[in-house]
Prior knowledge:
Layout: H1 21-26, H2 28-42, H3 52-71, H4 81-102, H5 105-108, H6 110-113, H7 122-151, H8 165-187, H9 192-206, H10 219-227, H11 231-242, H12 250-273
Helix pairs in contact: 2-7, 3-4, 4-7, 4-8, 4-9, 4-11, 7-8, 8-9, 8-11, 8-12
Amino acid sequence: MNEGEWSQIIRPKRHLLDINLREVWEYKFLIYLFVRRDLVARYKQTILGPLWFIINPLISTAIYSIVFGSIAKISTDGLPPFLFYLSGIVFWNYFSGALNGTANTFVSNAGIFGKVYFPRLVSPISIVISNLLQFFIQLGLLFGFMIIFKIRGANFAPNSFVFVIPYLVFLMAILGLGFGIIISSLTTKYRDLTNLVAFGVQLWMYATPVIYPINSVPEKFRAFVALNPVSPIIELCRYALLGGTYSGTGGLWYSSVFAVVVLAIGVVLFNKVEQSFMDTV
């Protein structure tokens, strides 16, 4: 059979920047299958199933309201504490879910990667997309409580920045994907990282204004919070939906550039590791 008769030719990648995004698009149906697999497998053989999408943020919000609101008396910038914590949790959950999921790409998919060829980026991309369903359900939950609180006369005011939220979610997806595939690439050789990721993400949350407003951070520590690329995103998401105070759009530009750089580094590193990872996983 002549070479011209083949519908597809698989060649080894020769350099780090040899990234075929068109091939990834050609496997869009496989992305759909992976998304469906993740959604089915996540709550298979559970009693409550997808209801956990709603139960988890409600429990977390209740605990934060008691511990940080009633006991620690941490400011919520004049906003209803329940909505303040729930809004932070909803957006943070999407970022952390995307990061944690993609961080295990090579280890959790070693079996299928070793048997079937397809663009390896398909797997982490599908994880980022599958986490969107959980995000939309939790965002709907947040909207429901916003309506209830508004009817009861709560003091908060959505503003025109709500139209920026799709872009902010896109930024969180890019950051989660970028950081996740960097970690995934490193875990092929350094397995200890898998034990540190979940713990590190929890610590990261406390360096992000999820349970406190940035203006409540002491001045000497505020610069460290500002260096966190997720901080401006969470802050603007909450400000768009609830109002309060906002430190300005400079942080959003920083997060946007940071996301592009992290994704570029992650894709290049991922591209390098995927060529030989079966020798180390």
